[in-house]
Amino acid sequence: MVGLGAALLVGGMDGWMLGVVLASAGLRWLPTPPNPAQQRQRQEAIALRGQVPLAADLLAGCLSSWCPPDAATAAVARAIPQPMAGRLAAAATELSMGADPEACWERLGKVEPVLAPLGRCLARAAASGAPPAAGLARLADAERAAAAREAQARVRRAGVLATAPLGLCFLPAFVLVGVVPVVTGLAGSFLTRI
C-alpha cells in the first residue's frame, strides 16, 4: 500500500521506482502477521495468564481445607473456564493415577510457560511437604499486581501512540500557519532595507 501510494503521489517513472523501493522495504522490515494457529496460541496464553490468580486462590482454598491434591485440582478444574480447566483436569488425572506430585506440577509449568510460577509453587510445596496455601495466595497477589502493572504500561503507551498522529498533523500546520508567515514577513522587511 505504501509503494502504491508513493507511485500515485509522485507519478511517472520516478514514482513507480520509488513505489517499488518502498514496497520491497516494507516487505523486508515490516513484521508478517501471525497465522491463525499462532493467534490462537497467543490468545490462549493471555487467557491462561489471566486465570492464574483465580486458579491459585481456588487451589489455596481447596488445599487449605485438607482436600487431597487430586480432588482439589479436579474441583478447581470444574470451577474455572477453559483453557485453564483442561490443564488442571489433566494434572488431576495424573495425580489420581498415582503420579509423583512434584513431577506432575513441574510438567505443568514446562508444557505451558505461563503456568510455570503455579507449577513451581505447587512442586515446591509437594517436595517440602509444607502446606501450599500461603505460597499460592502470594502467587495470586503477585500475578494480579503484575497484570495491573502491565495494564498501566499499555495504557501509557496507548496515550503516547495516540498523540503521535496528532503531532504529525499539527506540527506541519503550526509551521505553515505560525512560522512561515513570521519568517516571510521578517525576510520581506529585511530585504527591503538592504
TrEMBL record:
Keywords linked to the UniProt accession: Cell membrane, Membrane, Transmembrane, Transmembrane helix
Main localization, broad class: membrane
GO (cellular component) term, any one: plasma membrane
Bilayer-crossing regions: 6-30, 158-183
Entry membrane topology: Multi-pass membrane protein
UniProt domain Type II secretion system protein GspF: residue ranges: 56-179
Record's subcellular location: Cell membrane
Name of the protein described by the UniProt record: Type II secretion system F family protein
